[in-house]
Design a protein that fits this description.
By secondary structure, this protein is an alpha/beta fold. About 45% of the residues lie in helices and about 10% in strands. The protein has a domain at about 1-50 and about 95-210: Glutaredoxin (3-Layer(aba) Sandwich). The strands form two sheets. A five-stranded mixed sheet has the order 2-1-4-5-6, sandwiched between helices. The protein has a two-stranded antiparallel sheet with strand order 3-7. This is DSBA oxidoreductase.
């Protein structure tokens, strides 16, 4: 079975959804026969460095107070704690993730995509690292088992731009405007960080129908996500 995941490294529900999927897979009898592949998606392709906090950016985007933004983020942090994640919104650094996605495609060629994905997410949500800084990215690549000098070369070039653009184009063809978005064997899709039992149900269903080819069925809403900051339904949207 192949699971394709469209996500972004600054999307809180992408990290939460990742953990819920991993938990479901840990209980799935055929987990050794499942391949998980990540695809690039950018929530904010125009993101630029800023001195404003994540709370301030959220408040400005939706015309709410900083205190209201802090409350919203605290609620997301509580959900993260439920799957063992430590989200520290006070220290998160707003950044453009384009280079991170290019680096992930490089990691994929070395068989270390999963390792780097986890490092990037933890680096942003827990360690307060700047994913727009290439030296930081190179250090995370090294921590994931990649050659740091090779990572620097990739980051300082245009390498893997085509792969990132192809992933984004594929998302557009599928009508994906919110992440995380999980596609199972091209048969079923889960939109958003749905509860763990939903992932388990789909795993069992797809496995039992392995030789069938029904049309793509979206579970958890349409392919288009919506909500406050795109996250009210367990997903983040553009």
């Amino acid at each position: 079975m192949k699971i394709e995941v469209w996500s972004d490294y600054v999307c809180p529900f992408c990290y939460i959804g990742k953990r819920r999927l991993e938990h479901a897979l840990s209980q799935f009898p055929e987990r050794d026969k499942v391949e998980v592949e990540y695809h690039s998606f950018q929530l904010d392709p125009e993101a630029a460095p800023t001195s404003r906090s994540i709370h301030e950016l959220l408040a400005a985007k939706y015309g709410i107070t900083v205190e209201q933004a802090q409350t919203m983020n605290a609620q997301v942090a509580d959900q993260a704690l439920g799957v063992g994640l430590d989200f520290r919104f006070d220290t998160m650094v707003h950044a453009n993730t384009y280079d991170s996605h290019r680096l992930a495609h490089y990691a994929k060629t070395k068989g270390l995509e999963a390792e780097l994905t986890e490092r990037l997410l933890h680096g942003y949500f827990t360690d307060g690292l700047n994913l727009g800084d290439r030296e930081t990215l190179a250090s995370l690549a090294a921590a994931a088992g990649l050659d740091k000098e090779e990572a620097v070369t990739v980051l300082n070039s245009n390498a893997y731009e085509g792969e990132v653009k192809a992933d984004i184009a594929a998302a557009q063809r599928l009508g994906i405007t919110g992440v995380p978005f999980f596609v199972f064997n091209g048969k079923y899709a889960i939109s958003g960080a749905q509860p763990g039992p939903v992932f388990s149900e789909v795993l069992d269903q797809v496995w039992s129908e392995e030789k069938e080819e029904p049309a793509l069925r979206v579970i958890g809403g349409s392919a288009e996500a919506s909500g406050s900051d795109g996250c009210a339904d367990g997903s983040c949207s553009v």
